[in-house]
Design brief:
alpha/beta, Rossmann fold, seven-stranded mixed β-sheet, two-stranded antiparallel ribbon, 14% strand
């Protein structure tokens, strides 16, 4: 009882309870405003704890699984109050694992997760040397939902997870729209990678949408859509759903990321001294890093 009271007071001091309440209010507002079209995954979107509409896409898909095991696994969970799986821990009572490498965020994540039943927080920077041991925290090889968002070597990490035999029913992966829609490229693997240090624009990181498709579609995953804000891509295993459920489901195959604030998106003063917002164009963004080293899938 004393620990519970201390935790409640700590949550109030850090504003965690307020942020949780705001997340549910946001989810209620955005979910109520949507008009679901079973064939248009963009219409499934709503946002509570997720940055964009991922909560809605995941919720819609998970409620149609044939044999849900009610387990998620997320690599890159931030502080738990802004990610793709807290909705399931709070609103749906799922169990799962949230992994975060940043120490400050991981501490906040662990405090939050301590209030959930059957949800575990892991403070760890993920690399190819430790991913096999980390995945031992996943009690089944086909969790309902797997999310990876580490702004770095995401491709190499997920590829290893798949090689280990894991086949999540739903996969949500971040893609880098600055790499364009067509080239199957990612950054070379480095155990320690910092996008802010890798290139002045902070745009040299992650994976192109074409690279994700080249990895996932040959092993049976169906591409569904990219999110409406051009951040994440969604894939699913058709066998995990009723026959024909995913037939004809198709959202946008590529969208620009309009939420990524970096050196190429800040307002600037033009030659007339007028403050101007630059056009968000992946070609112009890629031009600034075209001489960097890329790994072609």
């Amino acid at each position: 009882m004393i620990d519970r009271i201390k935790r409640k007071l700590l949550f109030r001091a850090e504003g965690i309870d307020t942020r949780i309440s705001k997340a549910f209010a946001r989810a209620a507002a955005t979910a109520a405003a949507r008009q679901i079209d079973p064939k248009n995954p963009i219409s499934w979107e709503f946002a509570g704890f997720s940055q964009q509409g991922e909560d809605g896409v995941h919720d819609y898909l998970c409620t149609h699984l044939l044999k849900p095991n009610r387990w998620f696994f997320e690599i890159g969970s931030y502080d738990g109050l802004e990610n793709c799986t807290t909705w399931f821990a709070t609103a749906r009572g799922y169990g799962g694992v949230m992994v975060e490498g940043n120490t400050r965020r991981a501490i906040r994540l662990q405090r939050l997760v301590s209030t959930f039943l059957n949800v575990y927080a892991v403070h760890q920077m993920v690399n190819l040397d430790n991913i096999a041991n980390l995945m031992k925290m996943c009690p089944m090889h086909n969790p309902d939902l797997f999310v990876i968002d580490i702004d770095s070597t995401d491709f190499h990490i997920l590829k290893k997870v798949l090689e280990l035999g894991y086949r999540p029913k739903i996969l949500t992966v971040e893609y880098n729209s600055a790499f364009g829609p067509d080239e199957p490229i990612t950054i070379p693997y480095k155990a320690m990678f910092d996008r802010s240090a890798a290139h002045p624009t902070a745009l040299y990181y992650g994976v192109s949408i074409a690279a994700w498709r080249k990895l996932l579609e040959p092993i049976g995953y169906q591409f569904l859509t990219v999110g409406s804000n051009g951040v994440n891509a969604f894939f699913a295993n058709p066998a995990a759903f009723p026959e024909g459920f995913l037939a004809g489901v198709r959202g946008p195959e590529f969208l620009e990321n309009f939420s990524d604030v970096n050196a190429t998106t800040y307002p600037f003063f033009d030659t007339n001294g007028v403050r101007t917002m630059p056009e968000r164009n992946w070609r112009k963004q890629f031009e600034q890093m075209k001489d960097m080293e890329f790994f072609r899938v």
